[in-house]
Structure formats: C-alpha cells, structure tokens
Amino acid sequence: MAVPPDPPIVAAVRSGLAPHARAANAVAQQRYMKSAMPYRGITSPDMKQILRGIFAAGPLPASRAEWERAVLALYDGASFREERYAALALAAHRSARGWQDASTLPLYRHLISTGAWWDLVDTCTSSCVSPILLAHRDLATPVMREWSVADDMWLRRASIISQLPHKAGTDRSLLTEVIEANVEGTAYGSQFFIRKAIGWALRQYARIDPQWVRGFVDTHAEQLSGLSVREATKHL
What we know:
Structural class: mainly alpha
CATH class of the largest domain: Mainly Alpha
Pfam families: DNA_alkylation
CATH architecture of the largest domain: Alpha Horseshoe
Low-confidence stretches: none
Shape: globular
Protein name: DNA alkylation repair enzyme
Number of domains: 2
Number of strands: 0
Order of helices and strands: HHHHHHHHHHHHH
InterPro entries: ARM-type_fold, DNA_alkylation
Largest sheet: none
C-alpha cells in the first residue's frame, strides 16, 4: 500500500520557517537546550507570529487522520527543533479541537517519549494532554496513572504536571497517586526532572489549597527530596 504524501501544511511550515533563520541565535539556542538537533535561531515570539501566519494561510488538515499525519511528519521528520515546536503548535491548534479526546493520547505519548526533553515534554503536556485530562477525566485519568509508573521518566514527569492548569479542578486523588509513584526510592525518584515536577505540581496547587499542600508535604516529608519540598513550599 502506498504511503500517503505529507499534508500540505507540512511543506508550508518548513518553507515558512526557513527564511527567518538567524544563525547568530541558533548556536546559543542549541547549546542552552543541550539539543542534538540544530536550531534555525528563531525566537519564541517570532515563532508564534510566523506560525500564526502559516496556519491562517493553510490549508490546515481537514480530518483527524490528516492532522495526525501532519503532526508526526513535522515532529518525527524535523531537521530543526523549531519544526518540532511547530508540530506541537499544530497539535494544539484550535482547528484540532474536535479531535482532542482520549483516543489522541497515544499520539501525545509518542511525542513525549521521543521528544525526551523538558521543552517538548512540558509544552505537549500543558497544551495537549492537560486539556484532554480536564475534559475527559473518566478516560484520561487511567492513562495518567499508567504514565506515572511507565519505564520512561518523561511520561512520569508528564503525569505529574498534567494538572498544572486545572486550578480548582485538580483531582487531588490523582495528584497524590502520581506523586507517590515517583517519590524518593522509586525508579526515577532521584532524577532532577521528577523531583522538580513534584515540587512544581504541589506549588501550583498551593495557590488553590495551601493547607492541603502543607499537609501533604508534612505527611510525605521522608519521601520527598529537598528540591521537591523547597519548590512546593516556596509561597507558603
């Protein structure tokens, strides 16, 4: 069976980004992000503006299958890291709202696992995974539980920070479960990005319920790293 061609938006993104390359920025960006993949040197504000124009001009994918192919083509076929950022922007674009449900989580799992660095993982989690979890808790919550014990540090991090934007809508039982699966002594509990994620998740929820977070930190004092505790209690 013939492989379908990449959706037109893929070529539009690549050709649209190329003229904005800034060699003077690219080396510093790659060094800062410790990225094996090179950068074009486009700043974040410029990326947003450029992509806004590209997506407005289209044509945007007209079906879920075409959209997923476009996201994967940009992400997996990226020659520059900005193409991966563009893939995540397309994944979260308003034109894809109708496809943001639990059946899309395997796509995001792939992006997180293969991205395997905080810039890609955190963006995918906040802009793609988190809205699905909030809107489809019955189907997405078990997936977050699975990710929290996966043999993949980045999926674990994603599960921990998956409720950062949820505020009062945070599921405290899920928050507790994904943190307890990753405290000191667990498979990835000593990793910086896990310790930081735990502290970040607790600090964010402390804006809503500081008393609960204080109690959680006290109850889990022997299981939380110093970094997690400092982050969690920063504003308490």
